[in-house]
Amino acid sequence: MARDLTQLELLQELEPVAAANVDRHLSMAKEWHPHDYVPWDEGRNFAAMGGVDWEPGQSRLSELAKAAMITNLLTEDNLPSYHREIAENFSQDGAWGTWVGRWTAEENRHGIVMRDYLTVTRGVDPVALEQARMIHMTNGYASPKPLGEAIEASFLYSVAYVTFQELATRVSHRNTGKVCDDPIADRMLQRIAADENLHMIFYRNLCGAALDLTPDQALESISLIIQHFQMPGAGMPNFRRNGVLMAKHGIYDLRQHLEEVVTPVLKKWNVFERTDFTARGEKTREELGLFLEKLERDVVKFEEQRDRMLAREAAKAERDMATVS
Ligand SMILES: [Fe+2]
Ligand SMILES: [Fe+2]
């Protein structure tokens, strides 16, 4: 049986792939500037500078759009933690170091532009937002490692996670843009989503190369990540409440997770068609297959519950209207 590669061996073997993908990324990435996406003429001073402080009536965003914007922004704000995770697992050497720096600089734009937009348009309470940012960043983020699982090469685990996570944030930003009901916000979030897509492609290519290099070992990390996947914002204030709201209204729900994130990536890697696994990889693939079948059943269950909940809410709203009139 082929032995597992160490973290160092993986990074060395895959460095040329990383170099080629850094070049690919740089040739595809478009330069853009956060200030071009913010309607500055809507801005005015807050009370500390003789103006008026924020109040709920100033926001044009729905409760749903607010929850989604805050969740996505706080996730972007936690960049120092993600930088640490990626830098530790990918190393700072050669193309790996170039990528870590470039990726971090690109991600920083996302938080800058979203905060500028929300502050200038008074979309959310800036004091509550700042308090939530302080709590979230102080807690930091550590990638969720399944208890009891010894991961020999954390690079594999990390690269599999960020592949799915970048695609998940792409979906979430894209759908948040649609519910903001503001073409400026939609354009800004489309711009961010395009970045997330390019990031996903980098990580997906690297993880795909790892799968070719050491199929059984890589699939074990991929399978673990899929079975324990959590959105990166876990732990932020109101994460559950906002997550439920976003799932309820199709910004990021279980079907999107399965059909727009997990399935297309596994397809790209040919996970269910490839013939280079040994018995160990076959066993992992079988477990993964069973997990995905269960996820499919959970999707149906979730949607049935959601339909019932939305119908109940609609009926209640109708009753309330009747009482008022
Ligand atoms: Fe981002
Ligand atoms: Fe990203």
From TrEMBL:
Coiled coil: 285-312
Keyword Metal-binding tagged: yes
MF terms in GO: metal ion binding; stearoyl-[ACP] desaturase activity
Keyword Lipid biosynthesis attributed: yes
Binding site for Fe cation 1: E76, E107, H110, E196
GO CC annotations on file: cytosol
Cofactor note: Binds 2 iron ions per subunit.
Residues binding Fe cation 2: E107, E166, E196, H199
Keywords: Coiled coil, Fatty acid biosynthesis, Fatty acid metabolism, Iron, Lipid biosynthesis, Lipid metabolism, Metal-binding, Oxidoreductase
Cofactors: Fe cation; Fe(2+)
GO biological process: fatty acid biosynthetic process
One Pfam family from the record: FA_desaturase_2
CDD domains, per database record: Acyl_ACP_Desat
Gene3D superfamilies: Ribonucleotide Reductase, subunit A
Known partners and oligomeric status: Homodimer.
Entry's family note: Belongs to the fatty acid desaturase type 2 family.
This protein's name: Acyl-ACP desaturase
Organism: Nocardia stercoris
